[in-house]
Amino acid sequence: MRHEVVIAGAGPGGVATAVAILRADPSLRGRVLLCDRARFPRPKPCGGGLTGHVDEALAALGLELTVPSFPSPRAIVRYGAMAREVGLARPVNVVRREEFDASLVAQARDLGAEVRESTAITDFTVEEGCVRVALPSGAIETRILVGADGAGSLVRKRLVGHRSGTDGPRPIRFFRAELPARGAATDAMLYDFTPMVDGLRGYLWVFPVPGDRINVGLMHSPQVSRTGAELATLCRARLLDHGIQLGAAPLRGWPAWGYHPASPVAGPRLCTVGDAAGIDGLTGEGIAVALEHGVLAGAAIANALATGDFSFSGYRKALRRATVGRELALDRWLAKLLYGPGYRRWLSLVLCDPEVLDLYAARVSGTLVLADRKLTLVAALLRHLAASSSRQRSLRDSARPLSLPSGCGRIPCTNSGCCPSARR
Ligand SMILES: Cc1cc2nc3c(=O)[nH]c(=O)nc-3n(C[C@H](O)[C@H](O)[C@H](O)COP(=O)(O)OP(=O)(O)OC[C@H]3O[C@@H](n4cnc5c(N)ncnc54)[C@H](O)[C@@H]3O)c2cc1C
């Protein structure tokens, strides 16, 4: 068998898996095949925020950030007239995904992965002793097939079956555009929850990117059903609050499946990483997740090749128990609160309790594992419930539906009267 491992998709998840396998066993040089249907650099809709444990994951893999990035040292969380600014202990680098992903592919190639671009995996069958993978040039055999093929993953579909998502039939939705800053850029990452008053269950983002440009978009959790047209309209209209005009170009939406600890992520001779295994249901982030999954998949694959046990029976538990799985499980739970019917209560916790915002900021900048601080979070929740009614009143007053005049329209907002703990 020429290729011990075939990886569908050469995004961060696929590259991380290939590199982790080659680091574990350099004798596999040339025998790990990364196939991608695209040619790099390829377009990739993304906010480009290298949040969470990206630095650690890149270091663990011996990969480097070699492309231009915009280091953002602070974040602003906003809801209507209320805004909180928080410093990031470690600046979050914002990159252009087409550049970042191409640089990772080049590094994987240098380390001995065979990369075939413009090569889509169209089908596969798990057989006795191998997986038969259909490529445009004909079928090849391999011992293991990795699904790193993103949100529409072929491997995921086979593992999850007819259910498209374990949490329900609807995915998380994203809309995104990149445009010249035209004075709208600051060095802060803006997370604006104001559109929740219009029915969004998520946030609008404005991130700075290199070259005096901004990356803007919207994430919507599937807890409430909204059409693509509704979300696109909302995105355009609420960006105007920030003086950002998207123009007439149509806004395209992208789906992604949130991580669920019980969702199948592996089967005999198969495993998934990154978006194919599920992303963060609270923030929609997945670059760090994909890299961290790759590290874990690489270890599981190296073990399978060494022992001959290709069942991957412990893989789901390994993902779940690792830092990445614990953070995703916690964020899934937080998403149920924040994007559920009582969203004002939990949003006011984020906006009014400086400790909670600091904790989450540290999780975003990757300097803390939030899952290790659950007790602190629960204490904050209890503290908050006691003070809840007055805080929720402040929040109710601070955002207006789109048809009414909205907020102060500027960031950061200095309307701290409604919350004495506001920082400027
Ligand atoms: C609009 C938007 C904004 C986002 N913003 C952020 C952010 O700011 N920060 C963050 O951390 N995350 C963000 N995410 C999530 C992040 O983009 C993904 O989680 C991340 O790209 C996952 O990496 P991956 O390698 O699993 O998948 P991908 O990066 O999607 O790579 C999958 C690869 O598989 C290839 N492929 C697909 N099917 C096949 C096939 N059949 N055969 C061969 N190749 C195939 C594709 O061409 C692609 O190159 C955002 C997502 C969206 C949609």
Describe the structure in your own words.
With 424 residues, this protein is an alpha/beta fold. It has a domain at 3-48 and 96-168 and 257-330: 3-Layer(bba) Sandwich (FAD/NAD(P)-binding domain). It contains eleven helices and 16 strands. It has helices at residues 12-24, 54-61, 97-110, 154-160, 228-240, 287-307, 315-321, 323-338, 343-352, 354-364, 374-398; strands at residues 3-8, 32-35, 49-50, 69-79, 82-95, 114-116, 123-127, 130-135, 138-147, 172-180, 188-192, 202-209, 213-220, 253-256, 266-267, 270-272. Strand 15 and strand 16 (270-272) form a beta hairpin. Helix 1 packs parallel to helix 3 (97-110), helix 7 (315-321) crosses helix 8 (323-338) and helix 9 crosses helix 11. The radius of gyration is 22 Å and the shape is globular. Mean pLDDT is 89; it is low at 404-424.
Strand and helix layout:
Elements: E1 3-8, H1 12-24, E2 32-35, E3 49-50, H2 54-61, E4 69-79, E5 82-95, H3 97-110, E6 114-116, E7 123-127, E8 130-135, E9 138-147, H4 154-160, E10 172-180, E11 188-192, E12 202-209, E13 213-220, H5 228-240, E14 253-256, E15 266-267, E16 270-272, H6 287-307, H7 315-321, H8 323-338, H9 343-352, H10 354-364, H11 374-398
Parallel strand pairs: 1-2, 1-9, 2-6, 4-11, 9-16
Antiparallel strand pairs: 3-5, 4-5, 7-8, 8-9, 10-13, 10-14, 11-12, 12-13, 15-16
Bound molecules: flavin-adenine dinucleotide (FAD).
